Amino acid sequence: MRSLLFIPGDESATFAAALLSADALIFDLTAASAQARMDHARQSLRDFIFRARRSKERPRLFVRINGLETGMAGLDLDAIMPAGPDGIVLPYARSGADVQHLGAKLAVREAENGLPDGHCAILAMVTETADSLFGLASYAGSSQRLLGMAWSAQALTTSLGSQTSRLADGAYAAPYQFARTLTLVGARAAQVAPIDAPFTDLSDEAGLRAECEAARRDGFSGKLAIHPAQVPVINEVFGQGLTL
Fold first, then answer.
1. What is the mean pLDDT of residues 200-204?
2. Would you give the end-to-end CA distance of the chain in angstroms?
């Protein structure tokens, strides 16, 4: 997977259009805050995935659930798993044990919904808390469902109490360079795809391209996207010699 595009899980009007863009879509249920809005988002997303899976030419369909510690992850999975998504994005993962925990939940729901064992893969967001940086070596061998490890600076900034993740020239500050490197090394050690963080300046295509080229040079397999306009650049750069 070269490009993985985030789609807010409560914006069902954008679902169909997104099918034409990235290699994978990540429908983000954490974007819906109010309970009534969350229930509607789950139902709309489940119905959309049911329909989209009938298409022969489609991206992989992932759902970013709420974190295991929130008490809402099980509700998300109960609502979404009947539709058979291709994968679940696990936010705030702290170690391979969290991947194993999620894997057990998925196995139960696959059996309940008549899905093959192991149908649903896991993409772990592995640098969203300060303590998660100590667990990057633990993902190797944690689960056959694990297909990738991704990092992101936004949540980590809050956890570290940083003023910003970027320097004046746009480069990542040292703690974020460290998190990026650990993600790359941890993913390669686990023999899964390392996925680079999203580039958040939607007006800077040259900056996006430069960051994609640096990530591909260093060994990343793909990059998260936050807008469909970023996808062509990501696909072009990471389409040149894929490794995972």
1. 95
2. 8
The SS3 call for residue 196 is strand
Residue-number span of the structural domain to which 220 is assigned: 3-238
Is pLDDT at 120 greater than 60 in this prediction?
Answer: yes
φ and ψ at residue 115, rounded to 5 degrees: -95, 150
The CATH number given to whatever domain includes residue 110 is 3.20.20.60
CB-based burial label for 57 (10 Å; 0-12, 13-18, 19+): exposed
pTM as predicted: 0.93
Total count of domains within the chain: 1
The span from the CA of 86 to the CA of 110, in Å, is 12
Helix (H, G, I), strand (E, B), or coil: what is residue 63? strand
d(CA 201, CA 197): 12
Q: Is residue 81 situated within a structural domain?
A: yes
Asked if 186 contacts 136 with a C-beta cutoff of 8 angstroms, the reply is yes
Backbone angles phi, psi at 214, to 5 degrees: -65, -40
β-sheet bridge partners, residue 125: 150
Burial class (CB in 10 A: 0-12, 13-18, 19+), 51: exposed
Rg, C-alpha atoms of the chain: 17
Tell whether 244 is covered by a domain. no
